[in-house]
UniProtKB/TrEMBL annotation:
This is Alcohol dehydrogenase catalytic domain-containing protein. Keywords: Metal-binding, Oxidoreductase, Zinc. The lineage of its organism: Bacteria, Bacillati, Actinomycetota, Actinomycetes, Pseudonocardiales. Residues 21-281 form the Enoyl reductase (ER) domain. InterPro entries: ADH-like_C, ADH-like_N, ADH_Zn_CS, ER, GroES-like_sf, NAD(P)-bd_dom_sf, Zn_alcohol_dh. Pfam families: ADH_N (PF08240), ADH_zinc_N (PF00107).
Length: 297
């Protein structure tokens, strides 16, 4: 390892998957660093909804990794502790935040820039890795990242804000998938969870108008109002399709972001969108018509 910090032990504390529904702590070796890799000392790691699916093992197409060895966690920030011999983008002590996905960079999707849809998902032998999902993640004292998946933090951004920024990336990806400008577009967001509330804020900053937020929890809807939603409504008390159409002069929203993951919300999203409008499915429903395997063949 080039330029490495001094370690008081060869092992580290890590939170690993146990049996279904179980996370347990253990000690694992501090990971070795390859030529184009960076060892990060984790300072903050946040819990994502996907981590709950990973914990109960419904995330995996098969049984998943054996108990006691796999480290979840894909939203984390920390300090560079060591760098590989080819890495000159970072030095020990740099504050960094991670990007979970690293595509194989050889399939047609990766070459087109859509590496989050890598066709070699789960194939570490092909170069793909998804921190905390297919390779070890940030629920540990140390984690190894490919150099291309790290970003240096400015002094003005703390570790707490940095891990939230990793979640904002999901929202930005949703807007990027639209392939159109948001300025002046009417937007409806279904689901006032962390992703939905971030979507309201990003949409406001990108010039969307008006913005509707639909959910079932008054406390979350109040947050949405503070964050810039023009209309907030509880779908248990009011028909969200009628409300959004009233807000948009009867046309329907230009764009609907479904962030709740509720199966019924997809149908509502389609009906509150204007003709030729766009719906982006951001949330993941636990109800599945057919499981698509992500296990390498």
């Amino acid at each position: 390892m080039e330029g490495c910090a001094m370690f008081s032990s060869e092992t580290m504390v890590a939170a690993v998957l146990g049996g279904p529904g179980v996370i347990e702590t253990t000690r694992l070796p501090i990971p070795a660093v390859g030529p184009d890799e960076v060892l990060v000392q984790v300072r903050r790691a946040s819990l994502c909804g996907s981590d709950l699916k990973i914990r109960d093992r419904s995330f995996f197409s098969g049984d998943g990794p054996p108990p006691g060895i796999f480290v979840p966690g894909h939203e984390y920030a920390g300090v560079v502790a060591a760098v590989g011999e080819s890495v000159d983008e970072f030095t020990v002590g740099d504050r960094v935040v991670t990007e979970a996905h690293r595509g194989c960079m050889r399939c047609v999707n990766c070459l087109a820039g859509t590496y989050t849809g890598c066709l070699n998902y789960g194939r570490k032998d092909k170069g793909h890795r998804a921190q905390g999902m297919t390779v070890h993640g940030g629920f540990a004292e140390y984690v190894v990242n490919h150099v291309s998946t790290l970003y240096r933090l400015p002094d003005s951004v703390g570790f707490d804000a940095a891990v939230v920024l990793t979640t904002v990336g999901s929202v930005m990806h949703a807007f990027d998938a639209l392939g159109s400008l948001l300025s002046g577009a009417s937007i409806a967001v279904l689901g006032p969870g962390p992703i939905g509330l971030l979507a309201v804020q990003v949409a406001r900053q990108l010039g969307a108008d008006p913005i509707a937020l639909i959910g079932t929890r008054h406390s979350r809807l109040e947050l949405g109002k503070r964050f810039g939603a023009d209309l907030v409504l509880n779908s248990r008390e009011q028909d969200p399709v009628d409300a959004v159409r009233d807000l948009t002069g009867g046309r329907g929203a230009d764009i609907v972001l479904e962030c709740s993951g509720a199966p019924s919300a997809v149908n509502e999203a389609l009906h509150m969108t204007k003709r030729a409008g766009k719906v982006v499915l951001v949330g993941f429903s636990s109800s599945r018509c057919r499981r698509i395997s992500t296990t390498p063949s």
